[in-house]
Amino acid sequence: MNPSNRSRTINQRLFRIITGFTFALMVAGLMAGMFFVLVFSPQPATGTALPANIPHLVRMSLIQAGLSTALSLAIGIGLAWSLDRLRFFGRSLIISLLATAIVAPGLVVALGLIAVWGRSGWISGILSLFSLEWKTSIFGLFGIVLAHAILNGAFAAHLLLARLAAIPAQRLKLAQSLAPGPFRRFALLDWPAISSAIAPLASIIFLLSFTSFPIVLLLGGGPANQTLEVAIYSSVRLSFDLETAATLALVQLAICLVIILPSITTAPDFSPAGNTRLHHWPDRGIAGLLQIVILMVAVALFVSPLLAVLQKGLFANLSGPEFFEILQRPSFLRAAGNSVLLGITSAVLTLFIAIRIAMAAAGIGKRPLRSLLLMPVFAYLVMPSVVLSLGFFIGALNLGIDNAIAAPLVLVIANVLLALPFAYATIAPPMKSIHERYDKQARSLNLGGLARWRLVERPLLGREIGLALALAFSFSLGDLGVISLFGTSEFSTLPWEMFRAMGAYRTNYASTIATIMLLLTLFIFFALPPLFSRDKSGN
After folding, report:
1. Domains 1-40+320-539 and 53-308 share a fold
2. Burial of 52 by CB count in 10 Å (0-12 exposed, 13-18 middle, 19+ buried)?
């Protein structure tokens, strides 16, 4: 390579690194600004003192998150183990469906759980056939933990299955020749493959449960099961006590920071799971039977709330004019238009930022510098939607900005930050592999900038680009946290419209919105990745 080309290559690499750090610093600055607002700009409280129930809120938040995490990991490990061993028609569809758990709208899942596990739900109806009564209420700790375990357990199973599927076939053949029992095989082969992912996965699931908002809001059942996130919302919406809300937000921030610090640069890897090797080694006997039972129970737990939503919102109303009348309501059309527009904007911005940071990370060889770059990417796990929106809410109030004006911008920023860790985790691994494999050839051909992206990276990242866009759009579509503080009758989204309908006992309207949100999420998640994938010829 001649000196001029070498200098140009170095400059292009520096440009990528500087650009990535610029976006990371922008995210860090935004988070720092929100922290500053929460600490130094709370409004006067309407009460005489801060609430005495902060210890209860912290304790309840920790208990439900801890139980949810333990049960989610147990479900995830068992389901991944079963799917790795079993082969059957529809297996790929189930694996793909499990991947949607992370983006399934919490409000929709909660509504489905009520339809299945409520006093007049499916379980109660089945038991009544045998003159039995379902006495456990879905509202309370049971419902919260069940919802989190179903969603996060499916999410964990998808990620852990990718680890099991990556075990080399040669190692499997060698182990099979030694004829170990199924549980001995798990200890020798499977556990070493997944154990390194357990701690960071547990941290992420704990934070997702700890900062869960719509599920706790809908299934909490009262103050006894209230968490910090819901208490922040109640302080703003019900009593307009911003000082208390800011204090609760800072408490939550401190706890989240302690949890996420050990794994601040770790995120789920959305690598394809399943048929990544040709060698199949099934288990027989009791282990095989146990795997079938685990698979059937876990899939039933995950699929039944989704089917209940479709049955309640689609098939129950489709026979009459009400379903189509709802789709033509001005309030629904405005909310749907806002949600789609915000989702597209958030998805495009998320993808752009994730790609730029992934490019920078791929070109950085030193781990400390790369860790510094990635810290802001995962900042949203520390400052979730309600806390972030509270900072924006107080800031907009102090600046005299109307909610209707601030809401769209805040929603886009919050949705970008929410999806960024997962979009980055989707783009970064293949981007790093492309860099390691093709960097020298690209430099020898003097490919850089847009040419390198267009000819080398873009064709090889097609499916990951589609998946990152689907993740970001789906996160934006189902988010209730930010709009819960900024939503009004004039500015609404589908989750806010659905929540208001449920509060007004307009169950048919809420069920129809839930159905539309679920179908749109599934369509986007299944349609975009193949759409952006390169064809079989490699173009």
Report:
1. yes
2. exposed
